[in-house]
Specification:
This protein is of the alpha/beta class. The chain is built from ten helices and eight strands. It has two domains: about 5-130, Rossmann fold; about 160-255, 2-Layer Sandwich (Histidine-containing Protein, Chain: A), CATH 3.30.1340. The chain has helices at about 10-20, 50-60, 70-85, 85-90, 100-110, 115-125, 130-135, 170-185, 215-220, 235-250; strands at about 5-10, 35, 65-70, 90-95, 160-165, 190-195, 210, 225-235. It is elongated and about 60 Å long. Pfam families: EIIA-man, PTS-HPr.
Length: about 260
């Protein structure tokens, strides 16, 4: 499992971001997430030597993903990579993802056993839910491309549906639980929002996203009373369907 290091000018900020991210995964599945923040617990700044030490502690051999807050934190992180052993340096990836959203997404992906590059890709999608909800008047910019879903594929598939009965809808924590349920299985899982059961069939094909990505699930805007629809195909489709049924019965971990 990869490790993560949070580089911030503020120790309290880093600690709070880590606490939030770890809330999304169970204690037994959590990756190592270490802060390298502030000149000390009360003084703002960054320390390349402290970052290098955190990189060494976070590494288990699978790589270390680094999340940063502001521009100078990037410079300190880059300097820290020069301080560590060259073998470790090759396994360090400094992500341009947003700190809080990116950290949450990366922790969920790491807990599902995804590799360094996949976790970085999930972190980069961290703003997708906000952009989907609020729009992006500046244009799409240079964003990570979502996986293209071939709806015409003829491979047999299973279908899971569940009416969301959570008061706040499918928010970050249950989305992380859903993504974790399918993320470590050999299955293709495509989720969509069919809206309330009383709304009738949609005249257009609903948008589908990767159900193994918590950040992508959040872009669906599933609210209380909406119907979650997940298509499953692949060797572990039966296991994924069973896992989703158990998860839904437990209200996506929100009981």
């Amino acid at each position: 499992m990869i490790g993560l290091v949070v580089v911030s000018h503020s120790w309290p900020l880093a600690q709070a971001a880590i606490e939030l991210a770890l809330e999304m995964v169970g204690d037994g599945r959590a990756p190592i997430v270490l802060p390298a923040a502030g000149l000390d617990e009360t003084t703002l700044g960054t320390d390349a030597a402290a970052i290098a030490e955190a990189l060494e502690r976070a590494d288990s051999g699978d790589g270390v993903l680094v999340l940063v807050d502001l521009g100078s934190a990037v410079l300190s992180a880059e300097l820290a990579v020069e301080f560590v052993d060259p073998d470790l340096a090759e396994r360090v990836l400094i992500s341009p993802a947003p700190l809080v959203e990116g950290l949450v997404a990366a922790v969920v992906a790491a807990a599902a056993g995804r590799g360094l590059r996949d976790c970085d890709a999930e972190a980069r999608r961290g703003l997708a839910a906000k952009v989907a909800h609020l729009g992006d008047p500046a244009g799409p910019g240079d964003t990570t491309q979502e996986r293209v879903i071939d709806s015409a594929a003829v491979e047999p598939e299973l279908v899971f549906t569940s009416v969301i009965d959570l008061p706040d809808g499918l928010h970050a924590r249950p989305a992380a639980a859903l993504a974790g349920a399918v993320g470590d299985l050999d299955v293709e899982a495509y989720a969509s929002n069919l809206g309330p059961p009383t709304s009738g069939p949609s005249p257009t094909q609903p948008e589908e996203v990767d159900a193994g990505s918590a950040m992508s699930l959040l872009t669906l805007g599933l609210r209380h009373g909406d119907t979650l629809h997940v298509r499953l195909r692949g060797p572990d489709a039966d296991a994924a369907l069973a896992a989703l049924q158990v998860l839904a019965a437990a209200r996506f971990g929100e009981q």
